[in-house]
Amino acid sequence: MTTQLKEKLISEANNLISEAKNELARPEEDVVTYTVCEKAYTAVRKFLMHYLEDKEIELPGDHTFNELIELCQKHNSALRKIDFEPMLEFRDKEDIWADMSIANIYVNLAEKTKKTVQ
Length: 118
Prior knowledge:
The model has no long low-confidence stretch (mean pLDDT 90). Helix 1 packs antiparallel against helix 2, helix 1 runs antiparallel to helix 5 and helix 2 packs across helix 3. The protein contains 5 helices and no strands. It has one domain: Four Helix Bundle (Hemerythrin (Met), subunit A) (Up-down Bundle), CATH 1.20.120. By secondary structure, the chain is an all-alpha fold.
């Protein structure tokens, strides 16, 4: 992957975190928690994909989020300290992503992932 494409992944991930945080800054009754969770989740994916590309670690074409995390943790011990479990819930996303506390957890996980891979 070219430097330009790697920078695009980071830029997109940073924008997604900003958008999620802006949504959380609204009055609680106006927050769309599903949007917050979706943006934070996607930001984490992009940060992890950037990390693998930056370290020139091949990612299998068809990969789950869990496999992406495991591969990154295998190569970066600091990522093992992040508890990604809330993002690995097997319940329906619409149920879990409708929770304000989960939205805050997701944004925090995105921030921790960002700090760890940059």
